[in-house]
Write a structure and sequence with these properties.
Layout: E1 3-7, E2 10-12, E3 18-25, E4 35-39, E5 46-51, E6 57-59, E7 67-72, E8 77-82, E9 91-98, E10 102-104, E11 108-112
Parallel strand pairs: 2-11
Antiparallel strand pairs: 1-3, 3-8, 4-5, 4-9, 5-6, 7-8, 9-10, 9-11
C-alpha cells in the first residue's frame, strides 16, 4: 500500500522558516520524482517544487531562492525547507509522486501570519 505522510507545518511569523517532511512507503522511492504542491483558500493547487531521481530540482518562480527541496533515499523521505516565509505562502502543502498512479498525501497546513 502506497502512503505519503506529510509533517512539519505550523504557524510562523513572516520571515520565518519551516521544514516540511513527507515520509513515503510502498514504493521504490529512489526511482520516483516526488514533488510538493500547495493550495491556498479559494485558489487552485499549484506545483511548488519537484526533485528527480537523480536529484535535479525545479521550483515555481514564486518560491525560487526561498524554498529548497531535498530527498533522503535511505529514509524514503522528501523535504521542503521554507525560508523567508511570506503571508502569501499560507496554504496546505501536499506531497505527491507517481507510482502506479498519481499519489498524494493528506497535506500539512502552513500559516504565515504576525
Amino acid at each position: 500500500q502506497v502512503r505519503l505522510v506529510e509533517s512539519g507545518g505550523g504557524l510562523v511569523q513572516p520571515g520565518g522558516s519551516l521544514r516540511l517532511s513527507c515520509s513515503v512507503s510502498g514504493t521504490n522511492f529512489k526511482i520516483t520524482s516526488p514533488a510538493w504542491h500547495r493550495q491556498a483558500p479559494g485558489k487552485e493547487r499549484e506545483l511548488v517544487a519537484s526533485i528527480s531521481s537523480s536529484g535535479s530540482t525545479n521550483y515555481a518562480d514564486s518560491v525560487k531562492g526561498r524554498f529548497t527541496i531535498s530527498r533522503d533515499n535511505a529514509w524514503n523521505t522528501v523535504y521542503l525547507q521554507l525560508d523567508s516565509l511570506k503571508p502569501e505562502d499560507t496554504a496546505v502543502y501536499f506531497c505527491n509522486l507517481f507510482w502506479r498512479g498519481d499519489r498524494w498525501g493528506k497535506g500539512t497546513q502552513v500559516t504565515v501570519s504576525s
